[in-house]
Amino acid sequence: MQLVQGEEASSQPDPTHIVDYYRAQAVEHGSSPSSTMLDEIVRDKEIEAILLFLDRVSGRNLLEIGCGNGFLLEEIANRFGTRFAQHGLDLTRDMLTVARHRPIDCNWYLADVQKLPFASNTFDVIVSERVVINILDPEGQMRAFDEIARVLKPQGVVVAIEGFKTGLQNLNRARAEFLLPAIPEPDVNNWFTEQRWQSFLSNRFREFDSKEAAGLAPENFLSSHYFMTRFVHDAIKPEGGKLRNTEFAKFFSAALPPAGDYSPLRIKYLRKK
């Protein structure tokens, strides 16, 4: 693995409160999968979708950007053994401290996605879960896309789960019909508009066509779960009832196929142009 800079390389960090937020998550949750996502069903579905994608791709060098405490990389190692040469990168030192205790063969890097410490055309596969939305300024998000494209090999692939404003808007319209308060966008995120997402893809990437995406988790793979848990569940939940990871949520998330556009989180499959 050729590094452009040292392992500890990083560029201008994200706003302090974002780093502080994930530092607190590392302290509170340790090696738990809930360290970056408290909804256990969302986390399980994300991992299932990513593993399904990786089962279809070729190439050896794999980078997870925003690897957090390394939970996903351990899941990948458990599923695929040594098929991938794994590399995990995160901006939060406390997360990496936990990740380095994972019993897997992985190189760990403390760095910023806006200035990746790798040579161009290094990786075959890049994985990212809810990372670019943590960059609050659009210019920084564009730099992240530039860097991801730079370190990815020609025709390399990306699986990314990111947040979009449209799903939250649709969800809040449904909530308003039942006089439920709107769910705000988290202050540690800057979710994408459709236009901004397409502009960032630009000459860097193309999304998988229908043939390439056949058999993979659909883009709206979390929509029904969000509709049931963030709208229906809230509408019928008695005061003081459990908020998340309920039997209600588990049943309907297993029973219902994805439908509509009610989740801010979407999965995207990209190929470098």
Secondary structure blueprint with pairings:
Elements: H1 16-29, H2 40-54, E1 61-65, H3 71-80, E2 85-90, H4 93-99, E3 106-110, E4 123-129, H5 138-151, E5 152-163, H6 165-177, H7 194-201, E6 205-207, H8 210-213, H9 223-236, H10 247-255, E7 265-272
Parallel strand pairs: 1-2, 1-4, 2-3, 4-5
Antiparallel strand pairs: 5-7, 6-7
Helix pairs in contact: 1-4, 6-9, 9-10
Task: Please tag this protein with its features.
single chain; 273 residues; alpha/beta; Rossmann fold; seven-stranded mixed beta sheet; 10 helices; 40% helix; globular
What can you tell me about this protein's structure?
- This protein has helices at 16-29, 40-54, 71-80, 93-99, 138-151, 165-177, 194-201, 210-213, 223-236, 247-255; strands at 61-65, 85-90, 106-110, 123-129, 152-163, 205-207, 265-272.
- β4 (123-129), α5 (138-151) and β5 form a beta-alpha-beta unit.
- It is globular, with a radius of gyration of 18 Å.
- α1 runs parallel beside α4, α6 packs parallel to α9 and α9 runs antiparallel to α10.
- The chain starts with 15 loop residues before the first helix and ends with a strand.
- By secondary structure, the protein is of the alpha/beta class.
- The model is unreliable at 2-14 (pLDDT under 50).
- The protein has one domain (16-165, 186-221, 262-272): Vaccinia Virus protein VP39 (Rossmann fold, 3-Layer(aba) Sandwich), CATH 3.40.50.
- The chain has a seven-stranded mixed β-sheet with strand order 3-2-1-4-5-7-6.
- 38% of the residues are buried.
